[in-house]
Amino acid sequence: MKILRERILQDGRCLEGGILKVDSFINHQMDPNLMKQVAVEFIRRFADLPINKILTVEASGIAPSVLLGYLLELPVVYAKKKKPSTMQEMYVAEVRSFTKQRDYTMVISKEYLTPKDHILFVDDFLAYGNTGLGIIDLCQQAGATIEGMGFIIEKAFQHGRELLTENGVFCIESLAIIDSLEDDRIQLRK
Amino acid sequence: MKILRERILQDGRCLEGGILKVDSFINHQMDPNLMKQVAVEFIRRFADLPINKILTVEASGIAPSVLLGYLLELPVVYAKKKKPSTMQEMYVAEVRSFTKQRDYTMVISKEYLTPKDHILFVDDFLAYGNTGLGIIDLCQQAGATIEGMGFIIEKAFQHGRELLTENGVFCIESLAIIDSLEDDRIQLRK
Q1: Among partner residues B29, B31, B109, which is closest to A28 by beta-carbon distance?
Q2: Segment holding A36, helix H or strand E
Q3: Could you give the C-alpha distances from B11 to A91, A115, B24, B183, B186, in angstroms and in order?
Q4: Of B70, B85, B108, the CB nearest to A32
Q5: pTM, to two decimals
Q6: Is the pLDDT of residue B75 over 90?
Q7: What's the CA gap between A124 and A97, in Å, rounded?
Q8: Does residue A125 belong to the interface with chain B, where contact is any CB pair within 8 Å?
Q9: Are the Cβ atoms of A29 and B76 closer than 8 angstroms?
């Protein structure tokens, strides 16, 4: 996805610890037009899948997911990182975040994830794959089927794709794949 | 906004403590088409304002904001409720949440809120007005101008509008106004 690759090279910044900072257009300030183009590219890549629901995690997955849901006319559910006081029956997964160096709990109400659901999970980053692993856990608890997972940016050198594949997700698409952030250089796969 | 009012009456649920649960279509599972209609209604109501940026707070304000930003071709910034380890220079506001009964810190990077900005703040709920107060604080620190605030649902009996007006925000629009949730009945203003 050329426009995304160019934007990453232009506005992305390498930080210590294998972090790519894209908070000027993806996960703090957002470019809604780029998010729409990301959504269209996900539609192309997952064209053959029988999806009935988009699943994401708060907060940075919501923007591409809601534009995708809008274009596909599908509901979007976002997993919450804190249990709301108003939620009664829920699925819970513990997630280890290496990037943010803290663990967190992910919850989804039992009302909005069921055995009838064929899920496309969407998020901004695929790094070590632990958020995806939590989503697999939640979907297994609910009896929902994960049809695919789509990420805006994959940091291939953190091997999340391998972890997700080992856990049964085979349809994984990333719109930009980064092979290395060493020496402050963003090396994008061609 | 008829379609929103009907949806609230059909799918909203009253909980104790003046809480209206709308997590089947606004703030857990989301209806992206309704969010687009909400965005269009905000465009109508704020048609005369010189806005150059949409501001919101994670997580439930992101969906209407990104669709609004997409339609208006404007950037969207969401305030974060935790300081990211990668953020260096930021504005910080302390927010008291009565609805969730916990206080939190709201941060925005100094890069994305500046004296040049004319802000439309968008959120799902106007309740006691404390989130809006935090946004006023952040914008004052940055020297940004708040042109207006738009909410999907206002709980008028919690008087947030008065608090925001006292603090200098006069252009406030809510797409559905609730006068009471007493006796498990949603009383919508006509």
Answers
A1: B109
A2: helix A32-45
A3: 22, 22, 7, 17, 11
A4: B70
A5: 0.97
A6: yes
A7: 14
A8: no
A9: yes
